[in-house]
Task: inverse folding
């Protein structure tokens, strides 16, 4: 961390990470600038025809719940799988996992088999960025049960597409989701089951979360991030010249 100690400014994606840097490494508050991420412009509600074509490509004929991201332990997917399994006889939904399989893959596949979810879980792997918005838009809900995040970009991408979001209340997700998502203790299987069922059976709730998500996503932009980054460089240069 010697390089960080010499830096005039440090950039990070969230207040949660900033707080950790201050607590663990004793960096001063003014040296750390939060520059949030943002969804790309093409993450927005998509035409029905495009959504249906992407769903056909990945063999998604039924209603589904979506997760986007790498598969690894901190993503906490096993807990969600157990919560999802409790609803398999009540709801028709499929659970779709879009992302690269990491070192957690064997554990995830074993959990799917143990829970008897082989016919209810679809792992589509990596999805090209230009198809992701359609995959978000086709989902009845997006879930993100992480134990910790530096930011949580898929949450804001899903919101920008108008997809109802259920995510954990672990850092830094509350500052990303605001009041536009259902926040859940990542380790509470009962809470995940209850919240998921409520969202999937309640069309009005999904509509409200969709509207709130789109509004929330508009608060994040790459222009805003660029301006904050530029300001940090200007402040660092000024400090170096003194």
Result:
């Amino acid at each position: 961390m010697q390089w960080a100690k010499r830096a005039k400014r440090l950039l990070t994606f969230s207040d949660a990470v900033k707080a950790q840097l201050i607590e663990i490494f004793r960096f001063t508050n003014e040296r750390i600038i939060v520059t949030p991420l943002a969804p790309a412009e093409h993450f927005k509600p998509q035409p029905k025809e495009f959504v249906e074509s992407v769903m056909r490509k990945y063999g998604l004929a039924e209603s589904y719940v979506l997760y986007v991201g790498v598969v690894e332990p901190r993503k906490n997917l096993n807990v969600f799988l157990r919560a999802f399994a409790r609803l398999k006889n009540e709801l028709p939904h499929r659970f779709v996992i879009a992302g690269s399989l990491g070192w957690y893959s064997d554990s995830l596949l074993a959990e799917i088999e143990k829970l008897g979810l082989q016919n209810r879980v679809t792992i589509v792997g990596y999805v090209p960025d230009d198809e992701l918005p359609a995959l978000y838009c086709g989902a009845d809900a997006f879930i993100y049960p992480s134990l910790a995040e530096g930011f949580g970009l898929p949450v804001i991408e899903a919101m920008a597409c108008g997809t109802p979001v259920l995510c954990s209340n672990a850092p830094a997700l509350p500052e990303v989701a605001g009041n536009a998502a259902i926040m859940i203790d990542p380790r509470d299987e009962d809470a995940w089951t209850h919240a998921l069922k409520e969202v999937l059976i309640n069309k009005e709730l999904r509509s409200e979360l969709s509207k709130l998500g789109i509004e929330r996503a508009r608060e994040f932009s790459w222009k805003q991030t660029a301006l904050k980054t530029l300001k940090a460089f200007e402040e660092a240069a000024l400090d170096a010249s003194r």
Summary: Residues 164 and 207 are 8 Å apart (CA to CA). The first strand starts at residue 10 and ends at 12. The longest helix spans residues 222-241.
